[in-house]
User: Fold these one by one.
Assistant:
Number 1:
Amino acid sequence: MCNLRRLLVLLMVTAVQVTVSCGGSPHIQIGCSPCASGKHFIYTANAAGNPSTVSALSSDPSTGVLTPISGSPYNTGMGSRVLVKDPVRAHIYVANAQSGDISSFSINTTTGALTPLLAPTTVEAGVDAIAIDPLGQFMYMVSGNSANLWIFSIASSGALTPLSGTPIVISSSGVVSSSVLIDPSGKYFVTTSSSSAVTGSVFGFSRDTTTGRLVVLPGFSIPVAGQVNHGVFDPSGKFLLLTGNNVSGTAGGLSVFSLDASTGSLTLANGSPFPVRDDPAGVAVDATGKYVYVPNTADATISAFTLDFSTGALTTVSGSPFPSGGNGTINGPLGIVAATTGEFIYVCNASNDVSAFSINGATGALTPLAGSPFPDGGNAPSAIIFVP
């Protein structure tokens, strides 16, 4: 799964180890109102280094320009590959794939600085996808090393307690999990997997919003083109968008499913999968639900589309794909997020920086912000979130 991104991370880990040996220094959301400081915040999970880290940057709400936050980056576990914000509390969680645990932090809502919240919660090695329900009551996670699905209840303190009977096995065929998603209503849960380099599946559940328990939906397993790796619901919850590798040769694809709000059933949109470039590293939908963006690691670009809200069809934005804007020769994008305020797109790059773009509201075209890309301060930023 995502072989090129894994190679880029390995190369950067090696570079960090060489530097150390030479005596050098290695170096779905609720609400959109600004934090107390009048700024928004960007956080990235940085996969390389021992320990790995999470970086924090402030985002000017008017210009989108990023500034490192004092004290950043902050130590996590090993192999920090994904992170998520609690939609209710000022807490974030970072999944550490190598050390097999979850790090937690509280956010200073004025400065964006992070403070360790609790001791890491043990899960299993390979955790690379994590989601929290809209009410901040339950956390769901899967591992790229197994077919296990973990469910935790979240206390007001931020403490995680596994539900009895978890982890549950998604499929007896031993498929490898790769993402978890909850629709904006909180009623439905999906996870994806890849059983080979060219085939994937999406599994659907209804979700008890009181207990957090999952019930398999009819048509539980649906095939998805390519080695499915990332996904997102549009802001309305009407569409599920999933990226996959090796859809057409080495090129990736983007599959769009409509979600039936009454039954949870998924229907593939005509024209899916829509072509993107090699090794798609994520997918983001802007706050209006009109534009869709996919970062492509292999050629350091961002594919851009207009989403038809009636049919789910995608139309390529003029000028797409856009350069993703990293520095150096190893600069492919590894993650993407859309500002919930609507004006900006942020991409974390293998070159240890974050590219920032303004969105043309009329066309969906991307324009790099002045000063972009901005230093991340970590090594191998592999996931990125926006906190309003």
Note: The two ends are 31 Å apart (CA to CA).
Number 2:
Amino acid sequence: MVERRHLVLTCLFLIACSSALASQTIVFEVEAGRQDRGNTPIFVSLPQPMWRADDLRLTRIDNNAEVAVQILSSEEPQAVWILRDRLLAGQTRQYRLEATDTMPKTTPLVTCADNGEKLLLSVGEKPILKYQHAVKEAPDGIDPVYRRSGYIHPVFTPSGRAITDDFPPDEPHQHGVFFAWVNTTVAGHNVNFWDPKARTGQVGHSAIEKIGEGDVFADFRVALLHLDITNMDASQPVFNETWTVRAYNLDRQFLIDFESVQTCVADSCTVNMHYYGGMAFRGLRSWFDDQSVALVTSEGRDQRTGNESRPKWVRMSGPVDSDTGGNDKLATLLVMGHPSNFRADQPVRLHPDKPYFCFAPMIIGPFTIAGQQSYISRYRFSIFDGENNADTNQRAWTDYAEPPTVRILPTDDR
């Protein structure tokens, strides 16, 4: 009898908790700010009583339309959704967000799949990018020292065209999207993590830590290891790095957020003054010395006038072969730096002839990352077919750097 009573009380308690969770509701207001907004990712910090919600329901109040929303799990969870209907500059819009029991499971619209060698982010049937976690051997004719893991390639346009390269013959150490320092001092000696032929530094994939999917975004978090291999018999770790890569449910353009956290596990690492290194991007080898390929910065400078400048974004575009008819069409990669980055707006290396650029804060002087200190970098990529104008690119950067303001309304304002 006692056991039965205990069971009944337990069930009643669980039902009460579930009901309390389901009744958790907030109303918030989104303010566009100084520009029109549309197809903009929005992040809403959840109040603590909603942190354990199984799922969320988001409703636009003025028309009662339900909006796809997804929980971003972290120490302080957030609700993430995409503001698709245009919100004009200076205007506001209100939404209701409710904690719910687990919603019926459906096939996620944005996915992350592991084929044993690469992680593939896709929206619907469209591939967005691949992350190489297995070691890839250097192609025939290239020194085996260039074997590598821990980079992104290929990056695709929405029409399915790859716009990055891997082991290009002119610079076989360059790989799609990669991150490494060139000229560093560790324990009193020089270490080059950028180019394996120096045989002093090495960067590679370490572990897959997280994979997420949903109707708003898919993401992965991976660990990389930067090694000092000056003494091959006793290599030493210098950085434990994590990448968090998140792609959103947009299919006319691809939008990806990238965050790198490099934690120094040596006593310290000094990144010496140098004219390149850092977060880098390599375009197609067919774009090498192609006058139709353009690197343009937010300041309107090109690859011959913008080197070592400090732009908010860099756009690289070039011709790709059409799947229908064989006509060349433009494909574009836009990379935006976040204003919270070290030395933002960061200096850039724009190569005058090669389809390559990088954000290189050491251009303006050396800096030291102390032991157990973390160096954090954030960038947003926009990939599309064709070519956007400077105003469109600037609006994309503002969406990233100055997102719409979200204000949770007090009870009496709802």
Note: The first strand starts at residue 25 and ends at 31.
Number 3:
Amino acid sequence: MKYVILLLISLVFPSLAWCQPTPAHQPWVADRLRLLQAWIESQMAYRGQPGLSIGIVHHQELLWAKGFGLADRERAVPATPDTRFRIASITKTFTATAIMQLRDQGKLQLDDPVAKHLPWFAIRPREAGGPPITIRHLLTHVSGLPREADFPYWTTDEFPTRDDLVKALPDHEQFFNAETRWKYSNLAVALAGEIVAAVAGEPWDRYVQQRILDPLGMTSTLPDASQEPVADLATAYGRRLPDLSRPSRTSGLRTRGLAPAAGMVSNVRDLAKYVAMQFRTGPAGGGQVLSGASVREMHRVHWLNADWQGGQGLGFQVRRADDRTLVGHGGWLPGMRSQISFDEKDKVGVIVLTNADDGNPGPYVDQVFRLVAPVLAKKTAETGAAPPPSAWTVYEGLYRSAWGDAQVILLSTGLVIFDPSSLSNPDRIVRLRPQGEHAFRADGGFWDNGRDGEPVLFEMGSDGRVTRLKVGPNYSTPVR
């Protein structure tokens, strides 16, 4: 009987069925999340980043989600996992998913020429004798089409309408024959969106809403944010200039004819549902908007880079990073940068959304895979030692001197100290071994070379708080 119940759950709530038990309560996972938080806070502070929202997906669970900084600096609105951001080119993966749904329904084939579904499709070839451009070429960026439609929207923030794009297309030039080389193209995926609309018999945005977003329960996601205002949308900011100013960008951007390539708005909690779907198997139906076999097909490399370190799937990009194969996509619109990446093997996914042109999400994604992902599969703790005294929490905090910062955190294994701005290897943090009241000794690690074995003393004030952190003869003072 219990198997019948589980089967019913999997059909009605596929995102909940067959979930792995959450490791979030495990101390070794919580320790890494605290280290990650300290590192993110340091990056945000020293780079002057406005806001960031991040989420970690494990199997079918949003394991951890948090906002950092401000979604709106002028109004002091904090960034949270519910803050909406323009996810820009991550939209391409939704358009590719729609194409795959129609393919699985027998309504098109990936190797169909584009002109079969878009009779108005015409473009000037630079080279004679090339093969016709197909749907597969559009999704894998080997169509040879220009990167952009022939409008200066990255300069003016004014995007062409669909009619503008169709009318201007015959004046565009195909720079290379299809399958000659990989060339990223927003225009190509905008055309893929037009194919979705033509084959489905309804606008691209309505199709995505009804066939992908609604079944996944992505209630905060908009396929085309053309209606203003968008509630809970982060304010867009430009890069930090040499004088440390940061200009505002156009939050109310409308991508119009380029919407299938860049138009969507979402948040961490909704994108977690989308990432979780990438890990599921089985036939399409309900919240499984695409069969597991077709999902895997999208993740496979269809075009391999010359260095063999990455390539292009169907809509998704694939790369090798620290012995992992990561699948995902990034996005960038004025004042908004985003990235989703996931390891299909270990079923770990990361979502990072930022609201600044220099808010590169890549380092944050990579740090999660470096710091947190390796411990998610652990079943037991590394040591059976007794937990450290809770009274040691009084030592926690950020300490600063003219030479740099030092972060002290109480983990499940004891106190540690490290430079939060350069935490690249969790095995290189320094552990503090107790020596007496408020006294410790640095043990191991590479924090500020030469500190191993040095005495570490927390000087306390009359209010019971730390007034100075003394390492050897020198000291730092608390920041918080």
Note: Confidence is low (pLDDT under 50) at residues 1-21.
